[in-house]
Amino acid sequence: MKTHYQILIVGGGNAGISVAAQLLRKKSDLDIGIVDPSEKHYYQPGWTLVGGGVSDINKTVRKEKDVIPEKAAWIKDAVDEFQPENNSLTCKSGTKLTYDYLIVAPGIQLDWHKIKGLKENLGKNGVCSNYTFETAPYTFRSLQKMGAGKAIFTAPGTPVKCGAAPQMIMYLAADFLRKHGFLKRSKVHFYTGGSIILGVKKYAAALNKVVARYGIETHFVHNLVEIDGERRIAYFETKNGNDEVVRVAQDFDMIHVTPPQSAPDFIKKSPLAVKDNPLGWVDLNKDTMQHNHFANIFGCGDAGSTPNSKTGSAIRKQVPVLVKNLLSLMSGKSLDEKYNGYASCPLVTGYGKVILSEFDYRNEPLETFPFDQGKERYSMWLLKTKVLPWLYWNKILKGTI
Fold first, then answer.
1. Exactly one of 91, 128, 300, 345 is catalytic; which is it?
2. How far apart are CA 380 and CA 387, in angstroms?
3. What is the pLDDT of residues 139-187, one digit of tens each?
4. Distance from the CA of 102 to the CA of which of 6, 62, 183, 300 falls in 20 to 30 A?
């Protein structure tokens, strides 16, 4: 078995596959290996639409072997430990791999265990989450079953992939209740560990109008800590006026949970992680995507420490920067390409309604189209539901955009 690669990529998700594909398009004779244990590859942005009853879950998955670039080697294993000082890593199987250059793109970890009672209740008792392929369809089934009732939607205090996704399913649910005549007799609550609805002022103002339209009750700086599925009670922690931590109970008919998220554990415990950071992000230069301590290591995607919103659109802008800088390093040239923190999120605010948010590191709008993107538009709904999935499978993973 081959154990040395010129370029070794950890992670076969959006970031890892896109990097490999773009590198090989630039230089087809590169020796690239991709380490990933997964048999399946998912288009995760589609799961919000699945939870809202819009999309078929089976259209969001393909075989991993079918998205691996033809000239790259797939090492079907998981990483256990990094030894960057020796340009090597050890897999779960015990196999040791060495490299000249390493790209770390393992994606983000869902920390279900940090909420007591969540794992054992997920997929029953009205406890939903669009964050896995297996559980996303249950969200819509719960919504259909609820009728007039109380629906809770949560967001943790940690960064999450697509920061607005916890809200998007809430808006779809509220619109579903409205369409079926239940909204006025229902209560919709948003509990978030954050202190504001969204970090970009222009789009936050638009979302606040959506919240008011549906009559959603917002609760900021509230973190979900426990779920009692049998009694259908959720427990949150917040602080009172004396800055003391207090526990708040809220009953529900259905609850959609966005779990706390962090870098994978094998990153957290490694020399690649930001020192003393409990979430364990890969320690990257926010401009060049190069590791801050190991010059022959780069990274991109949701596990990175770059302070951008963790979205597929951010990956699409990070990848060409990483590719050009890595090839420059290999040629003995300076790293001149810079990532500006671009991220985009099509904010689904109801059926047929999307606000296309685009912004940079400063949380300033960085818009593409010659119209006001702070307004809900059906054209952007078509972008979200039709265009972007097609681009993902046919262009992004093939390295052509």
1. 345
2. 9
3. 999 999 999 999 999 999 999 998 899 999 999 999 999 999 999 999 9
4. 62
Is 91 noted as a catalytic residue in this protein? no
Question: Catalytic residue among 91, 128, 162, 300, which?
Answer: 162
**What is the distance of C-alpha 150 from the center of its chain?**
27
Half-sphere exposure of 308 (CA within 13 A, CB side): 31
User: What CA–CA distance (Å, rounded) separates 165 from 177?
Assistant: 19
Note if 345 is an active site residue. Answer: yes
- Residue-level length of the chain: 401
- Own/partner pairs for 382-391, CB < 8 Å, 24+ apart? 383/346, 383/354, 383/356, 384/49, 384/346, 384/348, 384/354, 385/49, 385/54, 385/55, 388/45, 388/346, 389/43, 389/45, 389/46, 389/59, 389/60
Q: CA–CA distance from 357 to each of 96, 114, 164, 277, 377 (Å)?
A: 43, 30, 10, 29, 12
Helix axes 14-26, 312-330, angle to 10 degrees: 40
Residue with tokens 């939903």: 128
Residue 362 tokens read as 């400063």
Using an 8 Å Cβ cutoff, are 217 and 187 in contact?
yes
Tally Cβ neighbours within 10 Å of residue 78. Answer: 16
Tokens of 296: 């022959």
299-351 residue pLDDT tens: 999 999 999 999 999 999 999 999 999 999 999 999 999 999 999 999 999 99
- For residue 241, pLDDT beyond 90: no
Single-letter amino acid code for the residue at 72: A
Report field, pTM of the whole predicted structure over 0.85: yes
**Residue 182: how many other CB atoms lie within 10 Å:** 17
Buried residues in 112-131 as b, exposed as e (16+ CB within 10 A):
bebbebbeebbbebbbbbbb
Strands 88-91 and 96-104, by their bridges, are: antiparallel
